[in-house]
Amino acid sequence: MIPNQKVNKGLIVFGTIIIQIGLGTIYTWSLFNQPLADKFGWKLSSVAIAFSITSFALALATLFAGRLQEKWGLRRLIALAGLVLGTGLVASSFASSLMVLYITAGIVVGFADGLAYITSLSNLIKWFPERKGLISGISVSAYGMGSLLFKYINTWLLNNVGASQTFLYWGIIVMAMVVVGSRFIRESSETVETNVSSLKDSNNYTVKEMMRTKEVYLLFIMFFTACMSGLYLISIAKDVGVKLAGLDVVTAGNAVAMIAIFNTFGRLILGALSDKIGRMKVIAFNFFVTAAAVLVLSLGNIRYGLFFACVAGIAFCFGGNITVFPAIVGDYFGLKNHSKNYSIVYQGFGLGALSGAFIGAIINGFKPTFMIIAILCIVSFIIALRVKPPIARSGNPV
């Protein structure tokens, strides 16, 4: 680690953007569902589970990222994560069973992606402590742009070389992006110093203290619901367009690009809006819109415009939720132990992804799964209207 003033911060931003774009390519997964199902004769819902496993492994990795960074150093950790991520995708090109696909494209890819994502984002924020919102927005948007860019790259590869070979080329490209990007990364030698006594909410909870509040469980329920609804749609968006909206494969594939665009806009717009009108108001709005959208999708026989409007709405709200929830955890439980506290709530990301896919596989249908998601969104909408920070309810630390 070297002093911050001796480093070209622009190069660190550049390297982080390359890394995040490479990592965000995993959100093109819905493009692979039908080709893999057709090639191997697998159930479509069973193939979609692979992306849910990826998301679960990604969330789980955040619990270990900090310790591994301390042990190996940031640049080495990110480079290694890039190698493992690429290797997982390349190995997926040889998968001929669902179990192997779940291990390579699911566990291996997801865990490596999570390690590089959380550490590169956190490091970039430390280099620009005075511009946390802007820098976080740049990094998170780059992650979203990865799926938009690779929607076209992976679609072309799928059409020309098939699903298995696409995994091979995709893995090589992403491995190169993350490893090269890591060469521009420099680990900040200066931690972001926070004078806790100067904060309005000086009540900083430890993980144990937080776990003794009921608010953390309410936040977990909401985050679980937000992630289940958003990640499930991402994993099967193209298939929903074909089966429920009657679109051709090429037109329905544009839903992947739609998701990437509105997911990114949601992260930028709703994150900033939550500072002005209140975070829980934004969250309540997100659940209301998501519930309405999935109910419309569950009706089936919808037209082109309505399908894309629903997809855009869900993606926009999902992007906003991913951005706003870290701030809510800080508001409720303080900043001193924020990373540890948020990693607990963040497990709702992986569990939500798994739940959506498994429910879809068990009941074997998009429509009933959407109905369950709608009910959960309504429950979370009510929670968002009523939940208050622990300090506002008790006046003292728990």
Key attributes of the depicted protein:
Growth Hormone, Chain: A; disordered C terminus; 2 domains; 0% strand; 398 residues; globular; mainly alpha
List the helices and strands and how they pair.
Elements lengths: L8 H16 L5 H11 L3 H29 L1 H19 L5 H30 L4 H30 L1 H22 L22 H5 L3 H29 L5 H29 L1 H21 L4 H30 L4 H8 L1 H17 L2 H21 L3 H5 L4
Helix pairs in contact: 1-5, 1-6, 1-7, 2-3, 2-9, 3-4, 3-5, 3-9, 3-14, 4-5, 4-7, 5-6, 6-7, 6-10, 9-10, 9-12, 9-14, 9-15, 10-11, 10-12, 11-12, 11-15, 12-13, 14-15
The CATH architecture classification of the largest domain is Up-down Bundle
- The whole-angstrom Rg is 20 Å
Could you give the order of the helices and strands? HHHHHHHHHHHHHHHH
User: Considering DSSP H and I runs of 4 or more, what fraction of the residues is helical?
Assistant: over 70%
**Number of DSSP-assigned strands:** 0
- Based on Cα principal axes, name the global outline: globular
CATH superfamily heading of the largest domain: MFS general substrate transporter like domains
Portion in strands? under 5%
User: Terminal Cα separation, in Å?
Assistant: 38 Å
Describe this structure in words.
With 398 residues, the chain is mostly helical. It has 16 helices and no strands. The protein has helices at residues 9-24, 30-40, 44-72, 74-92, 98-127, 132-161, 163-184, 207-211, 215-243, 249-277, 279-299, 304-333, 338-345, 347-363, 366-386, 390-394. The two termini are 38 Å apart. Mean pLDDT is 85; it is low at 190-202 and 392-398.
